[in-house]
């Protein structure tokens, strides 16, 4: 497309600017072997699900290609219809999980469609340098960028948007997600014995700060820009109006409850990009828990509640032993019950009386 | 309002602000003077035409890496009538009283530049002020501001050192330059005129109040060889802010500290001044507007 600027530069730059623009030598091949590596294109899947992946790597290192399109859109976050001016990676809160193996290369193409209002970028906690890639991925509406980084450390890691001057606002508007870098030989317990999961669920926790009007009702805004000043005021108070899993109150309950069955081993990855949280499976445990999410450290065992630091993702492995409905909550129970941080598991299977039995059903108090 | 990013709409939105006043669609009933301090007449300075080297605003890429923005030999063909001082709190208060402007974030009154105002606030004021005076007032372009700033113009803080093999060289160099500027934060706006006038007779340029311009952010990719432009992306949701150094802010930002400035050197305050559109320029703009409609 021809623009005023092109005309301007075409006419004037040759004369005025030839000396001002340094000539760069051609970029040397960063590492001769990357171009020879096998490439794999992965289609991302919205949470709480995770794209298909091998737990144990087959073959050597490869380049794994992902594409995420940034979507800015209003998102209803509770049953009352409260609307967040959302900013999202690929349309979901949290953004999709990307899974690779240690030594692989993550190659992300980040697309910021022209219809968006905001510039965005991405800071990968799994990556090394350039503010996690933030300094190399700044895209305006109408631009895309591709970043490659090597997954050198294993674990679950947060990624989030980090535009200068507006980082927290973008993060609490929904722009965070998770990368999982598996050891090439898969997960292991403290003795080095392999651990495997039959299912993986990805729970992203977010807290929202929705401004209210004079009457105390949640406000709606016509655009992101209009929501900014009021939202910032609420954010500075550090008291969220909503604390939710998967972008809204009740997104992982009822019809959307997570499913499992007795004997099945589930890996639950829990991320919170901004604020501490403490997941707890009511009636179950964490058999093996990487609280910090880093697989080079031996997992903690038999946890009742685990602590996820704001700005990190953790992983808990659990084999269901009893059927039933389980609540998976942030065990700040006010946040779980009043603000939204509750998910449900429905688990099919045979009851184990040995583990638990109601010996005597409720009845009037016996007086001897 | 939604920020429209197509090139056509970028320029259309700009033209609209001026046209409402120029077309004289509404007859303005000035706000009641009761209870409001008496205002001094708006003083403007006429900057004579001339040429200067204008380092282009925006970001420039070559071979996928940031490169120094071109320095263009710019010609200003017609005199620029620019407000001698930044718009004051008292002046802005009239627009607020009329319901045409939102209250600024900074409290207080007096002959002090209004601060805590966004690009959207500044353009709202320009539209109101144009109606109030029956003249066409608008934000200056970056080129006009730079020319009027004269010897006080700085432009972008650009890295002195770049290494195509090592992007961190540029980041470290920019950071060091900002630190070396050793500018202490100076957040308290002062009575207008406190920063003196420049050689062209314009007051308070590059003081502690940065100024919105009508130039929007652009990212330009220059061909690997030569000076041809490969592509440009306009972002009219972000505008150029001028002052002690040049920076870029999203249209709705009122507090420079939380804006898009680089590490260490955010603008102390955000304010603005306006330029008066000449009749001839208005006519040309209107004819362009007509071809768009
Ligand atoms: Cu963002």
UniProtKB/TrEMBL annotation, chain A:
Cofactor(s) listed in the protein's UniProt record: FAD; Cu(2+); Cu(+)
Family the UniProt entry places it in: Belongs to the multicopper oxidase family.
Catalytic activity: nitric oxide + Fe(III)-[cytochrome c] + H2O = Fe(II)-[cytochrome c] + nitrite + 2 H(+)
EC code(s) of this entry: 1.7.2.1
Name of the molecule in the record: Copper-containing nitrite reductase
Keyword NAD: no
Subunit and interaction comment: Homotrimer.
Entry GO terms, CC: periplasmic space
Main location: periplasm
Residues passing through the membrane, by range: none
Keywords from the UniProt entry: Copper, FAD, Flavoprotein, Metal-binding, Nitrate assimilation, Oxidoreductase, Periplasm, Repeat, Signal
CDD domains on file: CuRO_1_CuNIR
Domain Plastocyanin-like: 79-185, 201-351
Binding site for Cu cation: 120, 125, 160-161, 170, 175, 331
TrEMBL record, chain B:
Pfam families: FGE-sulfatase
GO molecular function: formylglycine-generating oxidase activity
SUPFAM superfamilies in the record: C-type lectin-like
Keywords: Signal
Domain of life: Bacteria
InterPro entries named among the record's database cross-references: CTDL_fold, Sulfatase_Mod_Factor_Kinase, SUMF_dom, SUMF_sf
Oxidoreductase is among the record's keywords: no
Domain Sulfatase-modifying factor enzyme-like: 49-276
Signal peptide: 1-20
Name by which UniProt lists this protein: Sulfatase-modifying factor enzyme-like domain-containing protein
Species this protein is from: Mesorhizobium alhagi CCNWXJ12-2
């Amino acid at each position: 497309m021809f623009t005023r600027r092109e005309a301007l530069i075409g006419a004037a730059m040759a004369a005025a600017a030839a000396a001002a623009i340094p000539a760069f030598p051609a970029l040397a091949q960063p590492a001769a072997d990357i171009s020879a590596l096998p490439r794999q294109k992965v289609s991302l899947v919205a949470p709480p699900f995770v794209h298909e992946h091998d737990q144990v790597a087959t073959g050597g290192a490869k380049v794994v290609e992902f594409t995420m399109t940034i979507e800015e859109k209003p998102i209803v976050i509770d049953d009352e219809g409260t609307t967040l001016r959302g900013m999202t990676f690929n349309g979901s809160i949290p953004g999709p999980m990307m899974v690779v193996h240690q030594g692989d290369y993550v190659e992300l193409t980040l697309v910021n469609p022209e219809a968006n209002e905001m510039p965005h970028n991405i800071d990968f906690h799994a990556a090394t340098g350039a503010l996690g890639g933030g300094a190399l991925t700044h895209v305006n509406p109408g631009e895309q960028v591709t970043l490659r980084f090597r997954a050198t450390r294993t674990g679950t890691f947060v990624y989030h948007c980090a535009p200068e001057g507006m980082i927290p606002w973008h993060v609490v508007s929904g722009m965070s997600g998770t990368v999982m870098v598996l050891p090439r030989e898969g997960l292991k317990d403290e003795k080095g014995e392999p651990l495997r999961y039959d299912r993986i669920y990805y729970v992203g926790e977010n807290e929202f700060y929705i401004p209210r009007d004079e009457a105390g009702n949640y406000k709606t805004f016509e655009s992101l820009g209009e929501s900014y000043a009021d939202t910032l005021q609420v954010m500075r108070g550090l008291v969220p109006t909503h604390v939710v899993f998967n972008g809204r109150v009740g997104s992982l309950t009822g019809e959307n409850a997570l499913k499992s069955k007795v004997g099945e081993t589930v890996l639950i990855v829990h991320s919170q990009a901004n604020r501490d949280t403490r997941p707890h499976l009511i009636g179950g445990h964490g058999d093996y828990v990487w609280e910090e999410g880093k697989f080079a450290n031996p997992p903690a065992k038999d946890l009742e509640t685990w602590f996820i630091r704001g700005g990190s993702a953790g992983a808990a492995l659990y084999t269901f032993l009893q059927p039933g409905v389980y609540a998976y909550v942030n065990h700040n129970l006010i946040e779980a019950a009043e603000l939204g941080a509750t998910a449900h598991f429905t688990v099919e299977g045979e009851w184990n009386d040995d583990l638990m039995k109601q010996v005597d059903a409720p009845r009037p108090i016996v007086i001897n | 309002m939604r920020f429209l990013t197509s090139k056509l709409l970028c320029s259309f939105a700009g033209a609209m602000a001026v046209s409402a006043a120029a077309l004289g669609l509404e007859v303005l009933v000035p706000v009641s003077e009761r209870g409001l301090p008496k205002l001094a007449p708006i003083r403007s300075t006429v900057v004579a035409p001339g040429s200067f080297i204008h380092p282009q605003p925006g970001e420039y890429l070559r071979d996928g890496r940031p490169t120094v923005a071109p320095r263009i030999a710019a010609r200003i063909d017609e005199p620029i009538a620019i407000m001698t001082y930044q718009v004051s709190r008292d002046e802005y208060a009239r627009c607020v009283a009329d319901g045409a402007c939102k209250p600024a974030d900074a409290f207080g009154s007096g002959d002090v530049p209004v601060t805590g105002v966004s690009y959207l606030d500044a353009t709202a004021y320009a539209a109101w002020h144009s109606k109030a005076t029956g003249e066409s007032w608008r934000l200056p372009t970056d080129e006009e501001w730079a020319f009027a700033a004269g010897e006080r113009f700085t432009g972008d803080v650009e890295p002195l050192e770049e290494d195509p093999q090592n992007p961190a060289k540029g980041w470290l160099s920019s950071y060091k330059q900002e630190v070396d500027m050793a500018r202490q934060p100076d957040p308290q706006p002062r009575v207008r005129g406190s920063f003196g006038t420049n050689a062209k007779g314009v007051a308070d340029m590059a003081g502690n109040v940065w100024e919105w311009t009508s130039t929007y952010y652009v990212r330009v990719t220059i061909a690997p060889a030569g000076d041809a432009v490969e592509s440009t992306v306009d972002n009219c949701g972000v505008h150029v802010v001028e002052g002690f150094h040049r920076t870029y802010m999203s249209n709705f930002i009122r507090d420079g500290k939380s804006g898009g400035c680089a590490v260490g050197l955010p603008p102390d305050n955000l304010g603005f001044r306006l330029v008066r559109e000449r009749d001839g320029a208005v006519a040309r703009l209107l004819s362009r507007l007509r071809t768009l409609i």
